[in-house]
Amino acid sequence: MVTKLQRRTTYRRKLQFLPTLSNSKSVKKRSIVLNVLLHCHKLKLKLEGIHREYQNLMAVRNQYFTLLKHIEIPKEVKVEKVGEEFVVKVSCNKGGDKLISILEVFEELDLNVLQAKVSCSHFFAMEAIAVARDQQTTDIKEVTQAILKAIEKQGGDHM
C-alpha cells in the first residue's frame, strides 16, 4: 500500500510539471490547475479558429476551381518557323480528343513531331516542335488553319 508521503511526493512532482505547460508563476495548487485549464481552453479556441479558417480556405478553393471550369479560354494557335522546324503553340478549352486531332493534322501535313509538351489541368495547352518529312514547302498559314479546323471540329469550344 502506498503511504501518504509517497502520494504527496508524486502529486508534487506532477504539480511541478504543470506550471511549465501553462507558463504559470504561481505556487498554489489551485492557481496552477486553473492556469492549466485556462491554457487548455485557449488552445482549444485557437484550434477551432484554425479549423474555421481552413474550412473557409477550402470553400474559396472549391469556388475557384468551379469558376475555372466555366471560364471560356479563347482558341489560340501560334505557328512559327525556325529554320526547318515549326514551333506550334496551342491553347483552348478542354473537351474532345484535341490532341489526337492535332496529331492527325501533323500526319496529314507530313510533319514529324520532334518534341511536344501537353497540359490538360484547367485548359488544353500544347507546345510542339515539328519538321517536314520531305522538305516540301509547308506554309505557316496552312498549318495554323489546319490546327484551328481540328480544334473546332472537336467541339467543347464555343466562341
TrEMBL record:
InterPro entries in the cross-refs: bHLH-TF_ACT-like_plant (IPR054502), TF_AMS/ICE1/BHLH6-like (IPR051358)
Domain Plant bHLH transcription factor ACT-like: start-end pairs: 76-152
Keywords associated with the record: DNA-binding, Nucleus
Localization (cell): Nucleus
PANTHER family in alphabetical order: TRANSCRIPTION FACTOR BHLH35-LIKE PROTEIN, TRANSCRIPTION FACTOR SCREAM2-RELATED
Protein's name in the database: Plant bHLH transcription factor ACT-like domain-containing protein
Broad class of where this protein is predominantly found: nucleus
